[in-house]
Backbone:
C-alpha cells in the first residue's frame, strides 16, 4: 500500500468533465424554461376562458327581477306621552310554580362537629413549654400550656385553639411557619 499525501495535494480541475461522458451538461440545449413558459400561458388562457364562459352563462340564465313598487307603511300619530299597550303574557311557568311544592331531603347529622386544636410542642419541662408559648406570642397568636399526665410521666403541651374550622387553624399554622415555627399539628379538640 502506498502512502499518499492528501494535505499537500493540489485541487482537481473542475472545468473538465469527470467519467469521460463526452459533452458536459452546460452544452445541452435549454428547452425546459421555454416549454414551461408555454404550458403556463396555455393554462392561464384556459382558466380565463373558463371564467368568461361562466360569467356569460350566469347572465343568460338569471332573469332580471321586476321592479316592485315600494309601499310606505302608514304611521299612526300617537300621543308622545302615552305608554305602549301592555304585552300579552305568553309564559305559563308563573302559574305552574305558584302551587308547586318542593321536597328536600336533609340528612340528619349523626355526629356533632368537633372543633380543632393545633399542638405545637410537647415538653418534659414547663420552662421549655413557656418558651414556645412566648415565641408563638411574638407571632401575634395566643397559646396555652396544658399539663398532661402520660404513661411515662408529666408532659407540658403547647396548644392553640379551639377552632371551629380546620381552615382557620391552617391559616394560623402558616403564620407560625413564616415565623420559623415548624412542626405544629392540627387535631380534633381533646377538651380541657
Residues:
Amino acid at each position: 500500500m502506498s502512502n499518499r499525501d492528501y494535505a499537500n495535494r493540489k485541487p482537481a480541475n473542475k472545468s473538465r468533465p469527470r467519467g469521460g461522458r463526452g459533452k458536459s451538461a452546460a452544452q445541452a440545449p435549454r428547452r425546459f424554461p421555454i416549454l414551461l413558459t408555454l404550458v403556463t400561458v396555455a393554462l392561464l388562457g384556459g382558466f380565463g376562458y373558463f371564467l368568461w364562459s361562466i360569467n356569460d352563462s350566469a347572465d343568460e340564465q338569471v332573469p332580471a327581477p321586476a321592479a316592485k313598487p315600494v309601499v310606505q307603511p302608514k304611521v299612526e300619530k300617537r300621543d308622545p306621552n302615552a305608554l305602549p299597550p301592555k304585552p300579552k303574557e305568553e309564559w305559563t311557568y308563573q302559574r305552574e310554580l305558584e302551587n308547586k311544592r318542593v321536597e328536600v331531603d336533609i340528612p340528619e347529622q349523626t355526629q356533632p362537629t368537633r372543633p380543632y386544636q393545633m399542638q405545637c410542642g410537647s415538653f418534659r419541662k414547663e420552662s421549655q413549654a413557656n418558651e414556645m408559648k412566648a415565641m408563638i406570642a411574638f407571632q401575634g397568636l395566643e397559646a396555652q400550656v396544658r399539663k398532661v399526665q402520660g404513661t411515662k410521666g408529666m408532659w407540658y403541651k403547647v396548644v392553640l385553639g379551639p377552632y371551629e374550622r380546620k381552615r382557620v387553624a391552617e391559616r394560623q399554622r402558616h403564620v407560625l411557619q413564616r415565623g420559623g415555627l415548624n412542626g405544629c399539628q392540627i387535631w380534633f379538640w381533646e377538651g380541657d
Observations:
- The chain has four helices and four strands.
- The radius of gyration is 49 Å.
- The chain has a mean pLDDT of 82.
- The longest helix spans residues 32-61.
